[in-house]
């Protein structure tokens, strides 16, 4: 049997013979793209028509493959896997405007014959990086949800365990607002820090806080990333603590957390 790759190249050559010029591929470095273009051009220049046996095999292979998907749709499928994860067929289907059942069938074939792809390692790396970002978002959301849930009024009560990383630029009141507002809006929402910036400008408690009101969305994002890292560490440390059997944990559960103040908010101070 003629290998699938050989048939694909032969088909490509026959399809492009009329144009006589190979296209430069997208999505790769200029030198690599130029080399691939030259290789395809050599195939075109030395092209020979498929034999009768190869034509028959081509027809047979077409019955076994997915013939109504273009290269653009293949690339959209890969991007969907990167964005939503390889098992989120529903969102991939919405992204591509295709039935979920069709995405499932295509995915089954895609992963079964994945190693036959020319850039299989690059595609897999692309998808795995996307899935790592998804896992990261889930971990951040879990930590933020747990932190906010500790307080009845987080915008007034939330405390951050700074350790030695408090810094001298932002006050605790500012940090508290940034964390709570980012959580309220959705930290992984597109342009969320532009919305946080607008919320800061509209918040009456920061009416005369020119420092915070003059921060850009990028600066607010950078500060929120620092605060989220501190919260992740704090919540991770708490989850690692094993409850004892002497009733002390039960007693502590009934007490108010040291992290929750009784009434007065923290004083707003900024180091000079």
UniProtKB/TrEMBL annotation:
CDD domains linked to this entry: SANT
One GO BP annotation of this record: nucleosome organization
All residue ranges annotated as the SANT domain in the record: 64-115
InterPro entries: Homeodomain-like_sf (IPR009057), ISWI_HAND-dom (IPR015194), ISWI_HAND-dom_sf (IPR036306), SANT/Myb (IPR001005), SANT_dom (IPR017884), SLIDE (IPR015195)
Biased composition (Basic and acidic residues): 248-261
PANTHER family in alphabetical order: CHROMODOMAIN-HELICASE-DNA-BINDING PROTEIN 3-RELATED-RELATED (PTHR45623), SWI_SNF-RELATED MATRIX-ASSOCIATED ACTIN-DEPENDENT REGULATOR OF CHROMATIN SUBFAMILY A MEMBER 5 (PTHR45623:SF49)
UniProt protein name: SANT domain-containing protein
Organism the protein comes from: Caenorhabditis bovis
């Amino acid at each position: 049997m003629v290998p699938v790759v050989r048939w694909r190249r032969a088909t490509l050559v026959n399809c492009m013979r009329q144009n006589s010029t190979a296209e430069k591929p997208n999505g790769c470095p200029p030198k690599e793209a130029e080399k691939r273009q030259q290789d395809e051009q050599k195939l075109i220049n030395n092209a020979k028509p498929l034999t009768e046996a190869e034509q028959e095999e081509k027809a047979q292979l077409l019955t076994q493959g997915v013939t109504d998907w273009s290269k653009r749709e293949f690339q959209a499928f890969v991007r969907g896997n990167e964005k939503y994860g390889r098992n989120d067929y529903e969102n991939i289907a919405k992204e591509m405007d295709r039935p979920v059942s069709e995405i499932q069938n295509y995915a089954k074939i895609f992963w079964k014959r994945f190693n036959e792809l020319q850039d299989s390692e690059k595609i897999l790396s692309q998808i795995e990086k996307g899935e790592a970002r998804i896992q990261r978002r889930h971990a951040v959301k879990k930590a933020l949800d747990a932190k906010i849930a500790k307080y009845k009024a987080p915008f007034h009560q939330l405390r951050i365990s700074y350790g030695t990383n408090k810094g001298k630029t932002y006050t605790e009141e500012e940090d508290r607002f940034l964390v709570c507002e980012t959580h309220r809006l959705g930290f992984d929402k597109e342009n969320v820090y532009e919305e946080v910036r607008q919320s800061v400008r509209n918040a009456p408690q920061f009416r005369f806080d020119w420092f915070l009101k003059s921060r850009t969305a990028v600066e607010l994002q950078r500060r929120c990333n620092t605060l989220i890292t501190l919260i992740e560490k704090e919540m991770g440390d708490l989850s690692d603590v094993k409850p004892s059997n002497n009733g002390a944990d039960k007693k502590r559960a009934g007490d108010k957390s040291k992290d929750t103040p009784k009434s007065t908010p923290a004083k707003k101070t900024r180091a000079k």
